[in-house]
Write a structure and sequence with these properties.
Elements lengths: L39 E3 L6 E3 L17 E2 L20 H18 L4 H32 L1
Antiparallel strand pairs: 1-2, 1-3
Helix pairs in contact: 1-2
Length: 145
């Protein structure tokens, strides 16, 4: 249907104009319905399909200048569930140093990359810390004797 404000050819049933963002629910005669375009993109906010040339989403009015996704099918993909990483992974680098950090990093990196890198650095840092402490204690003990 055509927009009353700018005459842009929108999808049938559009709530907002894809060109100017005006509400399509205003009173007035609707102009002939159009056929769906070949090239469409999904709205970054609501996920509905729009013309590739749309400046605003025809369903929710959001600006399409944000990264709109190309339409690949009629079904909207389900959001990926966020997996929470257990806090028990912190024990590995604490008790086993860099080896524990490496193991924790290998296991956790697919789920939470930031936490995996932190676990690795904690393991390396604690290994270096205990190496320095043992060197200092050795020097102090040999200097006393």
């Amino acid at each position: 249907m055509k927009c009353q404000r700018c005459q842009f050819d929108n999808e049938a049933g559009a709530k907002f104009c894809g060109q100017c963002g005006a509400s399509m629910t205003s009173s007035g005669p609707a102009v002939a319905q159009s056929t769906p375009p070949v090239s469409q993109v999904r709205c970054p906010r609501c996920g509905k399909a729009n013309y590739a040339t749309s400046v605003f989403c025809e369903h929710c009015g959001t600006s399409m200048s944000m990264a709109a996704q190309p339409v690949t099918s009629d079904a909207i993909p389900a959001p990926t569930p966020v997996k929470k990483v257990s806090g028990w992974w912190w024990l590995l680098p604490i008790f086993f140093g860099w080896i524990g950090g490496l193991i924790a990093w290998l296991v956790v990196k697919e789920t939470d990359k930031k936490m995996a890198v932190t676990l690795l650095w904690v393991g390396i840092g604690l290994s270096v810390f205990w190496a320095i402490v043992s060197i200092v204690l050795t020097i102090v003990l040999y200097s006393i004797a």
